[in-house]
TrEMBL record:
Gene3D superfamilies: Divalent-metal-dependent TIM barrel enzymes. InterPro entries: HyI-like, Sugar_Epim/Isomerase, Xyl_isomerase-like_sf, Xyl_isomerase-like_TIM-brl. Belongs to the hyi family. Residues 27-262 form the Xylose isomerase-like TIM barrel domain. The active site is at E149, E246. The keyword Manganese does not apply. One of its GO terms (molecular function) is hydroxypyruvate isomerase activity. This is Hydroxypyruvate isomerase.
Length: 265
């Protein structure tokens, strides 16, 4: 496996990697081992000025983060598609964008949420489109992009936007030029799609890419996914962003970085 043009465009997902360290130390640890950017879904417990300091000292940008997604321990995975959470969801948009702007981050992901039992799919879909457009319009005024990540049932059961084709449909339906796709090769493969083919088919919509191997969602090289065709497809379509490494290290973060050194050689 060779990273080719992406050898210096890897982003360390610090919600998955370096979890053996306190959060304030993770960005610097990522930079030290060769990641050129970082990402994290939920930094709001810490004042923005502190997080900005972590990033500045580490010398890496934060390429993407998320809107508040609720309490995972209670089964909450976002609110964008939930009709009874519209007011709460919308109340988080402006404060989150203000917070994220202080970090220099330009991409934010509003998680769709878990499908409530007995919920009417059409109502969830319409709510999602309205809320996605609401976030996009607020982000547009700040020069930011809203990203949509489909998450399959193997990772989150009953997640509303559970397939890349659903995400593409939503992005096209609301027709905002600052709404793009977060393309996760792991979710794509788990759903039975050919990631290289989807990249070629939907390249203009892709703003960010993430990778992990399958099975196990560990580092590349531990499973069965062929990553080289994915990297070649991204290079062929002119993808200019980062590759987010969103995987659970099989035996500790640094112990599992051999793939990165070998692929960059």
């Amino acid at each position: 496996m060779k990273l080719g043009a992406f050898s210096d465009r890897l982003s360390g997902h610090c919600g998955f990697l370096f979890t053996e360290l306190p959060l304030p130390e993770r960005f610097a640890a990522a930079a030290k081992v060769g990641f050129r950017a970082v990402e994290h879904p939920n930094l709001f417990a810490t004042p923005a000025r502190e997080v900005a300091g972590w990033l500045e000292r580490a010398g890496v940008p934060l390429v993407q983060t998320g809107f508040p997604a609720g309490d995972a321990a209670k089964g909450e995975k976002g609110f964008a598609a939930l009709p009874d959470k519209v007011a709460y969801y919308r109340s988080t948009i402006a404060p989150t964008l203000d917070y994220v702007a202080q970090l220099g981050c330009r991409m934010v992901h509003p998680m769709a949420g878990i499908r409530p039992a007995g919920a009417e799919p059409a109502r969830l879909w319409d709510t999602y489109l309205d809320n996605l457009a609401f976030a996009a319009d607020a982000a547009k005024a700040r020069g930011m992009t809203v990203i949509v990540e489909p998450i399959g049932p193997g990772s989150i059961a009953d997640y509303v936007i559970d397939d890349p084709l659903n995400a593409v449909e939503a992005i096209r339906a609301i027709d905002r030029d600052n709404v793009k796709l977060l393309f996760d090769a792991y979710h794509c493969v788990c759903l039975g799609h050919d990631p290289a083919a989807l990249i070629r088919a939907h390249a203009p919509l892709i703003a960010h890419v993430q990778i992990a191997d399958d099975p196990g969602r560990h580092e590349p090289g531990t499973g069965t996914i062929a990553f080289e065709p994915i990297f070649k497809a991204l290079e062929a379509v002119g993808y200019a962003g980062f590759i987010g490494c969103e995987y659970h290290p099989a035996a500790g973060t640094e112990a599992g970085l051999g793939w990165m050194r070998a692929a960059s050689a």
